[in-house]
Amino acid sequence: MSEQNNDLTAIQKAHMKAAFFATKPTRGTVFLRTFIPWQIWRFLRINLKMMTIIARSHRPR
Amino acid sequence: MARVVVLGAGVAGHTAAAFLRKWLGRRDEVVVVSPKPEYNWIPSNIWVGVGLLKRNQVVFPLAPVYRRAGIDFRQAKAVALCPEGATGLAKPHVEIEYTSDGKAGQRDKITYDFLINATGPKLNFQATPGMGPEHNSLSVCTASHAEEASAAFLEKVERMKRGERQRFVVGTGHGTCTCEGAAFEYVVNLEFELRSRGVRDKAEVIYLTNEYELGDFGMDGMHIRSGGYITPSKIFHESLFAERDIGYIKRAHVKQVDPGTAQIETLDGEQREVKFDMAMLLPPFSGVGLKAYDAGGGDITERIFAPSGFMKVDADYTKKPYEAWRAGDWPRTYQSPAYPNLFAAGIAFAPPHPISRPRTTAGGQVISPAPPRTGMPSAMIGKAVAGSITDMLRGAGSPTRTASMAEMGAACVASAGANPFTGTAAALTVFPIIPDYEKYPEFGRDINYTFGEIGLAGHWIKISLHHLFLYKARMRPGWAMIPE
Predict the structure, then answer these.
(1) Domain count of the fold of chain A
(2) 3-state class (DSSP) for residue B398
């Protein structure tokens, strides 16, 4: 990997700069992403939303 | 008695064949021609590619399923289409070449009353010298490719466990690629697996894409209502990469792949080398190269197929600038304008134009994504075409069913880490797939039906879809009740 070091640094630097300006989730948001009771609710809600889209797409025209 | 021939047994072709068999009379024949003996649930190849699933968990043999369903299966590739018949065989027919053991290389002609071209794409690795599993990069486009990617990935993990640093480059291998969603899924799954296996600190992960902005996905991006704002998908995509420390190079065309190095150029004209220890680069797609001949043996390929090799259907192919593109340019019935008994479904139809704004370098290299045609629209198109053919065989004078990508939405679940308790996936919906700025002037899509969310629930949905769609594809009892 020694020959990669210069290139690696350039990409990492560019990425670090971009990452600084990116939106980051709060700890609460990250926690909720895998918090089972909340995710069970989201599972039902997202399925309902998806079924609505599917039903609308299947509507005869 | 009528015969309908379906070329291809991917999502579109298999769906069309299954519904034709369900809707047509028992005396009518449904023939499927596919060069591969297996059905592959392609969305789950991502998990094969990081060693989480085995090949046999995403494929199954087609012959027993078709035998049970009463569908005539020919393991063969189509080589020539004669929609007017030919000397010695007056009926429209397709010439095929068998690929199965024992019959490989033998040719045959199958006559048809209707034909559906659902051949899918040719994986055009040749577009970039040195790209592809036979050369210097990997792919997850087929189950076998994904298996090879998995072996390479696991070998790199072992190296990292021994203390070596490794660089992974994942993305699109040409400026005109599509399927950025698959590259996105693979890179976030790979990153998740590196963390799960305790070697993330030894890895640099880079996403290389032809998208102008992250989150474009070949659909000109999308806008999602979130936190009191209407936010472009770019924001969510950049956020996920920042959170997971995934570097990215956007607006990039890969010119050549050498062992351990990708030569790239970007839209602003910059030329550079990107070193890698493992690269998974998706190829651009083209048509499979099917030739067509008229009754006198004259080559009519250009009349039926676009220069890309995809089949021309009822779309508006007039060349016009991005600003003049309309949702109504997109096809509705997928019937060939040249021959009314010829249809295309899924990736095999020629899109009238891209969805994302086209961009080229000063040197003329196109660097913008081609339009995606994912599982849900492909299946819906296959079903609509099957319905139209069924009705036309019963006397309808023209196609009766439509499935315009400008009038349908798509639900997409992009895995971002596969674990039943700690995994996540981005659940996305868009409506319609093709932005319609006449109907939705501000964002081109209905914001009430376009949403995105990342979480464990998305992963559960992804797992459910994997089992549900494999069940459906196996044509088990009640399969037709599972929506596309």
Answers:
(1) 1
(2) coil
Residue A15 placed within a domain:
no
When CB atoms are compared, the residue of A11, A33, A60 closest to B456 is A33
Is A15 close to B247, i.e. CB distance below 8 A? yes
Distance CA(B6)–CA(B254), nearest Å, equals 35
Provide the Cα torsion B325, B327, B329, B333; round to 10°.
170
Please tell me which of the candidates A12, A22, A34 has its beta carbon nearest to residue B239: A22
Query: Does A50 map to a domain?
Result: yes
pLDDT per position as a tens digit, B369-391: 999 888 889 999 999 999 999 99
Counting Cα atoms < 13 Å in the Cβ hemisphere of B78 gives 30
Beta strands in B69-147 (DSSP E): 72-82, 93-98, 107-111, 114-117, 122-123
b/e burial code for range A34-55 (CB count within 10 A of at least 16 → b): beeeebeebbeebbebbebbbe
The complex scores an ipTM of: 0.82
A8–B275: do the CB atoms touch at under 8 Å?
A: yes
Domains of chain B with CATH codes: 3-122+287-358+373-393 (3.50.50.60)
Question: In this structure, what token pair is assigned to residue B389?
Answer: 């053919």
Which of A1-10, B36-45, B295-304, B430-439 has the least mean pLDDT? A1-10
Q: Tell me the pLDDT of chain B averaged across its residues.
A: 95
According to the model, what pLDDT value does residue A5 have? 47
Domain that includes residue A56, residue range: 25-61
Interchain proximity B242–A43, CB inside 8 Å: no
Q: Strand B229-232 and strand B223-226: pairing?
A: antiparallel
Cross-chain CB nearest to A11 (options B164, B206, B238): B206
Which residues between 150 and 189 in chain B have a beta carbon less than 8 angstroms from any beta carbon of chain A?
Answer: 164-167
A20 domain residue, yes or no: no
Find chain B residues with C-beta within 8 A of A60's C-beta.
Answer: 401
Report yes or no on A12 lying in a domain.
no
Question: B223-234, pLDDT tens digit by residue?
Answer: 998 888 999 999
